[in-house]
Each structure stands twice: as structure tokens, then as C-alpha cells.
Amino acid sequence: MAFTLAPLPYAYDALEPYIDTLTMQIHHGKHHQAYVDNLNKAVAGTEHENKTLEQLVDHAGAISPAVRNNGGGHWNHTFFWESLKNHGPSDVINEPGGKLAEAINEAFGSFDAFKEKFAAAGMTRFGSGWAWLIKSKENGKLVITSTPNQDNPLMDVAEVKGTPVLGVDVWEHAYYLKYQNKRADYLAAFWNIVNWDKVAERF
Ligand code: MN
Question: What DSSP string runs through 43-76?
């Protein structure tokens, strides 16, 4: 079974003005598509051909750089699209609630402190990569981490391992058309489009 690119769970212009239509078209239709295509090439005719994406990602370090990079790319982007949502007018307050909000407060002191720390993880990831909010593999607590390239915290090679509940792509291709070198502005805009219901479901 070849891997396939699912359509976005919303229209390409749904995340305007925070993420622009052209960025979404290229990011999903070209970048994500390329990860899927290159992953299929990397596993074709190998013992990994019939593995699930989760199985591949779990052993990414032991398989091959092509599977690690493209399998990670496919997993991370699918996860990212599902983490986002258009909440309508910009005055809508977009914050987590319930048990997730309690866990964020417990782990980071407040929602604002969490946002600051998460953005800092994105800002300090040198070059290309991702910032993550994860449930730690050790104790189930919420932890902020970041990974290089298309690695993620599910991978055997990750420095900090756990189950991602939220992630943000800080590759330049995710924001450069609209924000150019201003990664901080992109990360600030990101809070307007987080799908907290989805994050709570994962948590
Ligand atoms: Mn990307």
C-alpha cells in the first residue's frame, strides 16, 4: 500500500490572514506531496514497504535517512494540518479549556507562560525543524521540546520522547512568503488558528 496525501481538512484559504493561501497551497500540494512521493520511493521493494507510517517513524533512526526524513515529513505535516482551524473573527478568544488547560497551567504556570515557552522553542530551533508540546513518555506530563529537520518526538532518535499533542512547523517554507525572516510574527499568529479541541482529544 503506497502512502497517499490526504486533502486538507479545510480550504486552502481557511487560515487567512494568519497563514496565507499561497503558502498553504505550496506547503500542502508541493512540500507535503514531495515527502509522500519520496517516502514511497524510499520503501518501494524493501522490507518496509508494508509497514504503517507509525511503525516506520518509531524505528526511523534504524531504517534510512530517506525514510526518517520523508516518513517524518509525512507524519509531521498530517499532524500539523489537523492541529489548525479557522475560528472566524479575530476577536474570538482561542484558548484550551478543561483538563488540558489545567495540565498546561500545572506544567507551565499559566497559558501565557506556556505560549512564551513554546514560541521560544520554535525561535531557538536553529535552521529547520519543529516545536512540540508532548505528553512525556516517562511520566505523562506536558513538556515542550523541539526537533531538527523532519524528526519528531515519536522517533527512536528523538532527544526528548513522547506523544505529540501540538506541533508547529518552523521551516522557512511554512512562513516565508508572508512573514519573510520574521519567524516570531508567524509564531504569534499561530495561536489564532490552533484547534484546541483536537489538541485536547490527543491529550
Ligand atoms: Mn513544512
Answer: HTTSTTTT--HHHHHHTHHHH-HHHHHHHHHHHH
Cα 125 to Cα 110, 129, 168, 181: the distances in Å are: 23, 7, 11, 14
pTM: 0.96
CA of 92 to the centre of ligand 1 (A): 27
d(C-alpha 90, C-alpha 85), whole Å: 13
- Please state, in angstroms and rounded to a whole number, the distance separating the CA atoms of residues 95 and 76: 22
Cα(154)–Cα(68) distance, integer angstroms: 11
CA-based max dimension of the chain: 52
Place of cell 482529544: 201
Q: What is the pLDDT of residues 52-106, one digit of tens each?
A: 999 999 988 888 899 999 999 999 999 999 999 998 776 678 899 999 999 999 9
Q: 106 C-alpha to center of ligand 1: Å?
A: 31
To 5 degrees, how large is the angle CA 166–CA 24–CA 77? 35
Q: Which residues surround ligand 1, an ion (CB under 5 A)?
A: 169, 171, 174
